[in-house]
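In response to a reviewer's request, we include the raw inputs and outputs for one of the modeled complexes. The three entities were modeled together in a single run.
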Amino acid sequence: MSNPDSYRPAPPPPQSGSISLQAMPTRTPQTGTYLEGLNPEQKDAVIATEGAVLVLAGAGTGKTRVLTCRLAHILEGGMAYPSQILSVTFTNKAAREMRERVGGLIGQTVEGLTWLGTFHSVAAKILRIHAELVDLKSSFTILDTDDQIRLIKQVIRSQDIDDKRWTPRYMASLIDSWKNKGLTPDKVTHKEAFKFAEGKGGEIYKIYQDRLIVLNACDFGDLLLHNLTIFTKHPDVLAKYHRKFRYILVDEYQDTNVCQYLWLRLLAQGTGNLCVVGDDDQSIYGWRGAEVDNILRFEKDFPGAKVVKLERNYRSTEHILGAASGLIATNEDRLGKTLWTDLEGGELVTVTGVWDAPAEARMISNEIENWKSQGRLYDEVAVLVRASRQMRAFEERFIALGLPYRVIGGPRFFERLEIRDAHAYLRIILSETDDLAFERIVNTPKRGIGQTSVQKLQMAARSMNVSLEHATRELVKTDEIRGKARSALKAFLLDAKRWRADIGVLKPVDLAERVLDESGYTQMWRDNKDAKSQGRLENLKELMQAISEFDTLEGYLEHVSLVLDVESGPQEDEISLMTLHAAKGLEFPLVFLPGWEEGVFPSQKSLDENGLAGLEEERRLAYVGITRAREKAKIYFAANRQIYGSWQSSIPSRFIDELPPQHVTAEAETGYYDHSYNRGMAEEVSESFVSSFERSRTSPGWQRYKQSQKSATVITGTATRKPVKNKGTNFKVGERIFHQKFGYGTIKSADGAKLTVAFEKSSEKKVLDGFVEKV
DNA sequence: GCGCAGCCCATTTTT
DNA sequence: TGGGCTGCGC
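The model returned the following structure tokens for the whole complex.
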């Protein structure tokens, strides 16, 4: 970003108990220092506080600056209290950055911005206040993707659907996509429901939602979706937020999905002061529900909206911008803006053909060493790939040469196996009704409690309509589970009881350490000689560090699901290696863009599944990639690439041909490719383009759809835990029964659901009534 | 209940 | 080619 020097501490905000809310904003002559150094368009965007405003902010045009200045402007002008501004971002990182930068402008007042956060954290906050309106308790837990899939798997199995043919992952993605569109189970169309298991998709969604309520839990999609339900069914609640939020600000609007759009639209009905900032050319998350259409349609949705285009770029040279602009101009579906800069000259964007991926890595490594030897930093360099598997070649090369690098993105800290296990322990001691947590760790470390035992616990829990832990307590009193499993379960229950007694006594960290120690969890990894276990132990240590910053376990767990992410370690001088997606929002003086080949980039899969829309999104990704560069952008393509183990010769990406020649220069490594050869390839490229559309009709998705159309069946009833009151048994003393394992017998006595049965082929045993049937 | 060998399937990822 | 999952044998 430019002109950071104009950021100076702002004067203290007007201190008064009666801020005039109707102060005419445009006449507020509060010429705070924050307005200095803004270009005319930026200033325009900052002071247009009233009504609907769309700020189309191209790459590197000072978007964050506009957002933060706008906040400062509203606050310093006394137009609203900090708590009356709703500002939403997509990532925690963006929220944190905004908070920091606004703090730099207005000082302490920033702490009052209680409604600055991600969509999800703001929605969770609202949902906790009104949880009971959607049958939740305000203490609801937020499930991560892993829990979500496990739960869905259970539901699928409970419906006797083959979970190999119809995978829980696929069902989860459908549910997510429905939630992204704001669809509750009753609103899912037949056609949509038929995407899964011959039409059972809708039913599974419904059962899954019911299960979530029983578990007092939400998945990520629910946070927003429940908000929608609350706002639409309870206008009084919505009205309260209308009164509360005087101004709404949205970052990265092009990434919003339908649900988020509806949520914003409802909230904006209050004052109508909705300002969204985004760039349609950088919409790269369509596959995850983002609707570019939201930003394309903004002026229609909010008639009279003011549109401000930020096109002056402060980041890149004219050749980089020229190349990127020329490329993106090929897209049809865009609002259209052209970046410009007064940074004249600079180097042409290079396009280089190489033999294969190792050659590509070798060549790029050489360039990086060159750069370093010229006194520049590794920190200034990024290698941006389309798919993470392309990273391997670079990592190998960097390691061989001893070049320091860091991978950005990849598996997140809190999604690691050991961290999830540890969380499950904490969750279960905090809430004994957390069945998912119980299931996860009841046999981790191995205690001899196998699948069959767990299944029995589940059956018992279902038949008694209680939690798994509760069912366990009952079941160990009987002979349903015996031997090692039974004693292990008993011991586990005792452990849990002991740990719970320390809640509020020990500090969260100390409790957590004790639990992981006494459960044998830490020992399990110490004993494991796998190469990764050392790292896992270190992660657990890091986890303790994170927990130590909280006073209560609840507080910690609340944050962990939505807000917390681990700060990256001390900054060293390292090359950044990441996907193009991960690079959005970042900038580097020197950017390498390897793998520009048909099928790799644009990705064949994207083309197959989404046709022209997919291609346009890939092109936006290319645009994002090029515009990350400040000084140099270097594109590569290989003549041969290994795909799934086998070598394939490849064709240069069509995107290479779309770069305006005046901003590009071809550098061939050895003459396998030169620019004219590449041009000749254009014929073949367009042919493959046509064939990709042909292929789309034979794609798996299309096939699956056709198949599901053919074999439609009637939706069947449900069989999950229904909120039925826990009652005694239906069995009578003296009655003859059958038990799967023990055979026939006669009931001697009954104690609630616990039966004492004299079995004919076995001795007298205590069993649960859910396990026997009348004969 | 646990460990290993063969098998299948492969973007992008935030909350 | 390689990682993750399943099914089989102990």
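As requested, we also summarize the result in words. The radius of gyration of chain A is 30 Å. The CA atoms of residues 657 and 679 of chain A lie 7 Å apart.
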